[in-house]
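Exercise 7. Given the encoded structure of a 199-residue chain, write a plausible sequence.
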């Protein structure tokens, strides 16, 4: 197996591939998609630049008053990133089963983050770096995913991160030691939560 540095690169092979303008475009798209959905409409998902037309896996995370308000995404690169952001923003706002749908009053107050994923690849537990790698744990038809920023936000060490990803999959906390498939990925994360996107 290749080492983590070579096999778990950023979505385009180098960190920070999206310009500040492209990041802002995607954040604004996410807001517009949510607002359009509240009106029963859809936003245009034709990407304004070739790079945003490239297929990428991505997650859209919503925060309200400092608390998680929804998070949905595609692990696989199914659609162009521009379309993926629009669709996952709407899904996070209205179809995350952990939360009630976002209301018209809440929508303007949402803070949005976007995580663009590299392709998940097999990784050994000792190779997992907290703050760099996201994790996917799969076993017996169950799968759980946690983004790289999650263990940092919660102050978890590596073993806790592995255990919590197993719990996310509905598996025992030690499934990563007992036959579960462990995959790692990196993500370029940007947005409005905690000042991730410069003003």
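Solution.
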């Amino acid at each position: 197996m290749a080492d983590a540095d070579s096999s778990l690169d950023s979505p385009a092979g180098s960190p920070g591939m999206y310009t500040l303008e492209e990041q802002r475009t995607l954040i604004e798209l996410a807001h517009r998609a949510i607002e359009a959905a509240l009106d029963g409409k859809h936003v245009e998902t034709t990407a304004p630049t070739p790079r945003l037309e490239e297929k990428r896996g991505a997650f859209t995370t919503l925060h309200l008053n400092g608390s998680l308000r929804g998070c949905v995404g595609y692990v696989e690169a199914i659609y162009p990133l521009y379309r993926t952001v629009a669709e996952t923003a709407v899904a996070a706002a209205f179809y995350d089963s952990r939360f009630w749908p976002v209301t018209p009053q809440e929508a303007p107050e949402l803070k949005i983050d976007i995580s663009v994923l590299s392709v998940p690849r097999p990784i050994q537990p000792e190779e997992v770096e907290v703050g760099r790698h996201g994790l996917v744990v799969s076993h017996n038809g169950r799968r759980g995913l946690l983004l790289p920023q999650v263990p940092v936000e919660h102050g978890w060490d590596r073993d806790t991160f592995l255990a919590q990803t197993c719990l996310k999959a509905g598996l025992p906390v030690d499934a990563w030691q007992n036959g579960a498939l462990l995959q790692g990925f990196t993500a370029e994360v940007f947005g409005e939560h905690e000042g991730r996107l410069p003003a």
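Remark. The longest helix spans residues 20-38. Students should compare their own answers with the one above.
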